[in-house]
Amino acid sequence: MKILDVFKKTHFTFDGEKQYETVQALLYRHWFVILARLILFAFMGFLAFVIYRLAFPYAQKLGLVALADLAFYLYLMVWWYGLFRMLTMYLLDTWIVTDHRVIDSTQKSLFNRQVAELNLATIQDVTSSVTGLIPTFFDFGTIEVQTAGAQEKFSFEDIPHPGEVKDLIMELHNKYMAEHRDGKETHIGDRS
């Protein structure tokens, strides 16, 4: 979504990028995923206002206006927190594919980030799947990268054009293996 691009630092650099590597793809979840959640949040916010307006006359009769207001404002605080948490998780879950490695940066919660990476030499298999009517229509799905490393499987969920990304990763893997016969880095230095 172009509107959310203002929150993204850059499309082609990241912390820990090596001097000799080039970013081939920076992946976020498909825009439909956030749109569906935003619609749900809009409905939940609208529903709160409707319930408040319908319950207010009864709260006045019972003398519970202050309690009704408190409950409504507490709900709105939780609603806002949920909305911004959802946007944060969407924008900070990223997958970076370079010509040397794949980096999975997952935001588990507001203050819990997990970053894992794998060298292209450790890739054994890449599969993509698109399941369901809406994902098929909008072409988004899951990519699983099977590795020989410590973390056996990387999973990228709700990625746009998973077939194309799978082909890109396999093409980069094959090119990397052709250039690095033993699967080891031959470059020196990294970008600070």
Could you provide a short overview of the structure?
The chain is of the alpha+beta class and 192 residues long. The protein is 44% helix and 26% strand.
Question: Which key phrases capture this entry?
Answer:
192 residues; alpha+beta; 44% helix; elongated; three-stranded antiparallel sheet; 4 helices; four-stranded antiparallel sheet; 2 domains; PH-domain like; 7 strands; single chain
Strand order of the biggest β-sheet = 1-2-3-4
Structural class: alpha+beta
DSSP strand count? 7
Query: What letter string, H or E per element, gives the SSE order?
Result: EHHEEEEHEEH
Our count of helices gives 4
CATH topology name of the largest domain, in short, is PH-domain like
Helix content: 40-55%
Strand content: 25-35%
Q: What oligomeric state do the depicted chains represent?
A: single chain
Rg (CA only)? 22 Å
List the uncertain runs.
none
Indicate how many domains the architecture comprises.
2
Largest sheet: 4 strands, antiparallel
Quote the average pLDDT: 84
Give the CATH level 1 class of the largest domain. Mainly Beta
